[in-house]
């Protein structure tokens, strides 16, 4: 594991105010957070599950105990283009 911590980014979920399908949105959020939903999401979109009792995908098994970087998400959003360019220049070869 990197000594300065692992980079990470949240995967938020929200129900937008004024949605025309509020009950369907609530059902989807409830399913996504259920044990069944977390297992399916883990399989098709490998992330560390938010629900206890669901093991992370094989490649992410050590993440829950790892140190993570302290990331200023507002700043990262403000300098997104610079970050993307730096990544492309240094790693996308």
Total of domains:
1
Q: How far from one another are the termini?
A: 23 Å
Instruction: Determine the structural class based on helices, strands and strand pairing.
Output: mainly alpha
- The rounded Rg comes to 17 Å
Q: Return residue spans where pLDDT drops below 50 for at least 5 consecutive residues.
A: none
* Average predicted confidence as pLDDT: 89
As a percent range, the share of strand residues is under 5%
Shape from CA axes?
extended
Order of helices and strands: HHHH
Please describe the structure with a list of short key phrases separated by commas or semicolons.
single chain, 93 residues, mainly alpha
How would you describe this structure to a colleague?
The chain has 93 residues and is mainly alpha-helical. The chain has one domain (22-91). Helix content is 43%, strand content 0%. Helix 1 (22-33) packs across helix 2. It is extended, with a radius of gyration of 17 Å.
Topology:
Blueprint: H1 22-33, H2 35-44, H3 73-78, H4 80-91
Quick description:
Helix content is 43%, strand content 0%.
């Amino acid at each position: 594991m990197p000594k300065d911590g692992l980079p990470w980014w949240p995967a938020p979920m929200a129900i937008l105010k004024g949605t025309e399908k509020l009950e369907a949105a609530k059902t989807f959020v409830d399913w996504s957070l259920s044990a069944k939903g977390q297992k399916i999401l883990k399989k098709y979109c490998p992330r560390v599950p938010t629900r206890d009792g669901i093991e992370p995908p094989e490649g992410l098994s050590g993440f829950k105990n790892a140190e993570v970087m302290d990331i200023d998400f507002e700043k990262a959003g403000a300098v997104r283009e610079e970050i993307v360019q730096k990544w492309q220049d240094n790693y996308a070869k």
